[in-house]
Amino acid sequence: TPAVALDGVTRRYGDTTALKGVSLSVREGEFFTLVGPSGCGKTTTLRLLAGFETPTHGTVRFDGESVAGVPPEARDVGVVFQNYALFPHMSVGENVAYGLRFTDPPGGVSRDERVSTLLELVDLAGAEERDPDTLSGGQQQRVAMARALAPGPDLLLLDEPMSALDAKLRERLRVQVREIQRELGITTVYVTHDQEEALAVSDRVAVVRDGHIEQVGTPREIYREP
Ligand code: ADP
Ligand code: ADP
């Protein structure tokens, strides 16, 4: 069973058709990337998976079951958007704990323990009391990831989480993100316009263009074809 799938999904916004009958399936534990130019429908796809949007036609499935009518907070999804800024008036620890506003920490641990474990996971052990403004862009995105992962989601959705960073930091962060993903074994859908990035991190890649999926394959398969 695929962990998540889109089945003939169309999404219209007025006269704009952002997705035109898209079908795709992401396997359990897979790092799956949507790559394509701005405006091709990548963010819309993530928003449909997160439950922030509903399809105009078609079905979104988790483990084969339609999630129509299931609200975002009930989908066990962690989301990091490009501009998912941290709350500046909260400490790093409070920002991560905010990820637990709908649920208790998994495994019966305390909130403080959960926050500390997550900060360790993203290589920011002991940063609870720090002010987000004192962190680098890459560190801030790792805190945003810790916040998204705090409730122990089944699915991680990452929308251009690196785009605000310079090339060197991007490369480091993508390696870290991939390591965290592997360690957790969490199904991940990653969005980028950067083909090199997509090929470097993904198990499989979907090339998106103008609301369609043009091609799906491993980086090796995609790269081989002209
Ligand atoms: P991408 O993430 O690949 O840049 P999007 O999914 O954000 O693309 O957008 C796909 C298309 O749908 C674009 O033409 C965009 O302007 C349009 N679109 C997305 N969201 C909305 C919306 N809420 N209202 C109107 N048009 C939208
Ligand atoms: P991205 O480039 O990362 O896709 P955008 O800045 O284009 O993000 O869009 C940010 C948000 O606005 C998204 O949630 C998208 O769905 C929505 N959006 C995009 N295009 C439009 C539009 N033409 N009208 C209204 N909302 C839009």
From TrEMBL:
<keyword id="KW-0547">Nucleotide-binding</keyword>
<dbReference type="GO" id="GO:0016887">
    <property type="term" value="F:ATP hydrolysis activity"/>
</dbReference>
<feature type="domain" description="ABC transporter">
    <location>
        <begin position="4"/>
        <end position="226"/>
    </location>
</feature>
<dbReference type="GO" id="GO:0043190">
    <property type="term" value="C:ATP-binding cassette (ABC) transporter complex"/>
</dbReference>
<dbReference type="GO" id="GO:0005524">
    <property type="term" value="F:ATP binding"/>
</dbReference>
<keyword id="KW-0067">ATP-binding</keyword>
<comment type="function">
    <text>Part of the ABC transporter complex WtpABC involved in molybdate/tungstate import. Responsible for energy coupling to the transport system.</text>
</comment>
<keyword id="KW-0813">Transport</keyword>
<comment type="similarity">
    <text>Belongs to the ABC transporter superfamily. Sulfate/tungstate importer (TC 3.A.1.6) family.</text>
</comment>
<comment type="subunit">
    <text>The complex is composed of two ATP-binding proteins (WtpC), two transmembrane proteins (WtpB) and a solute-binding protein (WtpA).</text>
</comment>
<protein>
    <recommendedName>
        <fullName>Molybdate/tungstate import ATP-binding protein WtpC</fullName>
        <ecNumber>7.3.2.6</ecNumber>
    </recommendedName>
</protein>
<keyword id="KW-0500">Molybdenum</keyword>
<dbReference type="GO" id="GO:1901238">
    <property type="term" value="F:ABC-type tungstate transporter activity"/>
</dbReference>
